[in-house]
Design goal:
alpha/beta, single chain, six-stranded antiparallel sheet
Length: 663
């Protein structure tokens, strides 16, 4: 592939340039930048247009509408011109070791009906017929005209490329052009033409064959229409999905804000109030149960534990006294029986001695064992059990009352947080409007999806019928079997070409994701704003992932960040043709702050191509941005507009003046 370097541009009688004005654009290794500074209205955009038109003519503006091109040129014509309008561009074309010095001259002569344009290409100062006749093919081979707006672009309009609806088409089209996929489409169309010619070859054959042939043609035409409709519906579906996603994001954000303003409490007001009433009833029941527990006669014993211990000791002692008294009574009866028995058998003195001994022993026992019984109450063990049960019940009822009151406090706090209905009216209306927008977008998306499914189903049905018709042509009409086989082979080849095209585009999407991510990160001041830019392999939809790997909507980016994203896309595409074509940018820094300007200078202007022409206002490339650009600048010019004569003069800025900041 050849390499183009622009060495000079000459403009005459166009826009603010009346007399012949020449600007030298030579660059050298390590200094790829030529800086042109001017006030607004002095001719920067005219220079950009002159480069586009001089190299590509009508194709640079609109390849299909001549009227738009003519209108542009008529608008640039000067009423006070004394000669024809001219654009001359001198270039060095390098191919291998061979260098050619070419001059591309376009000249416009006024006629009554408009303008007559002539193109002449000079090789080493001499008119070259071959280059003149084949210039469009030559320049398209280096950079197709469809992509010239990406290399010679207006910086103020570049932000529009970051539009999520426009960006996929731009990336896909640019990739197709870079990869030469148009040749694949042309080959597919050629195969279709071969199929039609094969089907039409025996036009004068039998009516039956003509009927089958007509069926094949009709089905093929219907399939072509359906394929076009399917492609259109795919674009509409993608747009509808983007619209639905944006509407859902807006609804989610609004809903989150509404939740913070009390919407959740408002929506659950009835449940919260019912919960509070139920909790209040539970607390009342717990209070009643506690009062009932406190009325147990054994409950007070819990507060007289010391007296109760004394009671237990006295009761035990009392029991012992009762037992000793019963034993004493038994001993006395036994002694009476012994004495009575001895009276009849023993001497009186002996009997009296025994009676006295027994009486003394009983008296001593009674003095040691028997006390006075003073308590007539029940066993204290039963009272203790009843007391412990009463205390356990009191603790349980008190715990239940405490829990009920705590739950009641929380319920009353929730009721207090419920906003008034008049406070929520605006929020509810906003929620309803956004919900309707989401529902409407979902209906449109569902409708496009349904139409796609119907179209695909219809296309599959037609393919079955087309295959059947082609099979019939190849089997029933044996004398035409060769044409049938050709049709079958052509269909297989077209299917393979479609698959190859999609695989090729998908592989390039991964490369674009990596390149755009690298370029965008290098230009951003916020290093952690994004983690990755992803280009979908099938739809070429662009998604930005933030530092937490969540999708970052493009409308969250500032205007300057969107411009940097667009420039990152351009940089990735331009570097596909690195070193083969110059880059010219008009007003590139208007929306950027000083830090982003300096970064753009170092990361984009100094690296994007072997030759970069920067058309700047007098305030853009100043301060730190100018200092960052100066090491890479080969030459500087200013455009001086004279109000009295209405014309611009191109003046070089000497190196010493440039260092001193003189424009």
């Amino acid at each position: 592939m050849a390499k183009i370097t622009i060495t000079s541009l000459t403009v005459e009688n166009l826009g603010p340039f009346r007399e012949r004005q020449v600007i030298g654009l030579q660059v050298r290794s390590g200094k790829p930048v030529v800086l042109v500074k001017a006030l607004n209205g002095s001719g920067k955009t005219t220079l950009l247009t002159a480069l586009q038109v001089g190299l590509y003519g009508q194709k640079a503006i609109n390849a299909f509408r001549r009227s738009e091109y003519d209108q542009l040129l008529l608008g640039l014509q000067r009423a006070d011109a004394t000669g024809n309008s001219v654009i001359e561009i001198e270039v060095i074309a390098e191919s291998g070791d061979q260098k050619s010095k070419l001059t591309v001259r376009r000249e416009w002569v006024r006629k009554a009906a408009g303008l007559n344009e002539s193109l002449t290409v000079y090789l080493d100062g001499e008119v070259d017929i071959d280059f003149t006749q084949n210039w469009e093919e030559f320049i398209d081979g280096i950079l197709p005209a469809e992509l010239v707006q990406l290399f010679l672009f207006d910086g103020e309009k570049i932000e529009a490329l970051a539009n999520p609806d426009r960006l996929p088409d731009l990336l896909r089209h640019a990739t197709e052009v870079f990869l030469g996929i148009g040749g694949i489409d042309s080959l597919g169309n050629d195969l279709k033409a071969v199929e039609r010619r094969a089907a039409l070859k025996y036009k004068g054959a039998s009516d039956e064959f003509e009927s089958v042939r007509a069926s094949v043609e009709g089905l093929d035409a219907q399939l072509t229409d359906l394929d076009a409709r399917h492609a259109m519906l795919l674009q509409e579906q993608a747009a509808a999905r983007n619209e639905q996603e944006r509407a859902q994001v807006r609804l989610d954000r609004y809903s989150a804000d509404a939740q913070r303003q009390g919407l959740a409490a408002y929506e659950q007001a009835a449940r919260i109030r019912d919960s509070m009433l139920l909790t209040r009833k539970t607390a009342a029941e717990a209070k009643t149960s506690l009062a009932d527990a406190m009325s147990d006669p054994f409950a007070p014993l819990a507060w007289v534990s010391g007296l109760w211990s004394r009671y237990e000791a006295i009761w035990t002692q009392d029991q012992h006294s009762r037992f000793a008294k019963r034993m004493s009574d038994e001993f006395r009866q036994r002694d009476s029986r012994v004495v009575a028995a001895l009276t009849t058998a023993a001497p009186k003195a002996s009997v009296e001695l025994v009676r006295q001994l027994l009486a003394d022993d009983l008296k001593r026992y009674r003095g040691e064992r028997v006390g006075r019984a003073v308590l007539q109450d029940a066993d204290p063990g039963e009272g203790k059990r009843r007391r412990d049960e009463s205390v356990a019940r009191l603790k349980k009822e008190l715990s239940g009352l405490t829990a009920a009151r705590s739950k009641l406090d929380r319920a009353e706090q929730q009721v207090g947080q419920i906003p008034a209905e008049e406070q929520m009216g605006g929020i509810l209306r906003g929620m309803q409007e956004r919900s309707k927008t989401v529902a409407s977008a979902e209906v449109r998306l569902a409708d496009r999806t349904r139409q796609l499914e119907e179209t695909a189903s219809h296309a599959n049905h037609l393919r079955v019928r087309l295959n059947a018709a082609q099979d019939r042509m190849s089997t029933e009409f044996r004398d035409r079997s060769l044409e049938g086989k050709a049709l079958e082979a052509s269909a297989r080849a077209r299917a393979a070409l479609v698959l190859f095209k999609e695989k090729l585009l998908a592989s390039k999407a991964h490369w674009l994701s990596s390149m755009i991510t690298t370029e965008f990160k290098s230009l951003l001041r916020k290093r952690n704003l994004i983690s990755q830019v992803i280009v979908d392999p099938s739809s070429y939809r662009v998604s930005i992932m933030d530092g937490r790997s969540k999708e970052l909507p493009m409308d969250r980016l500032s205007a300057g960040e969107r411009q940097l994203l667009a420039i990152s896309v351009l940089s990735a595409l331009i570097k596909e043709r690195r070193g083969h074509f110059p880059v010219v940018v008009d007003t590139p820094l208007a929306r950027l702050d000083q830090q982003h300007r300096a970064t753009l200078v170092r990361r984009f202007f100094a690296e994007v191509s072997h030759q970069v022409v920067v058309l700047s206002t007098d305030q853009e490339v100043e301060g730190s941005a100018y200092e960052a650009l100066r090491p890479y600048t080969n030459a500087e010019y200013s455009l001086e507009f004279d109000d009295a004569t209405g014309r611009t003069t191109i003046l070089p800025i000497p190196a010493t003046a440039a260092r001193a900041g003189v424009a």
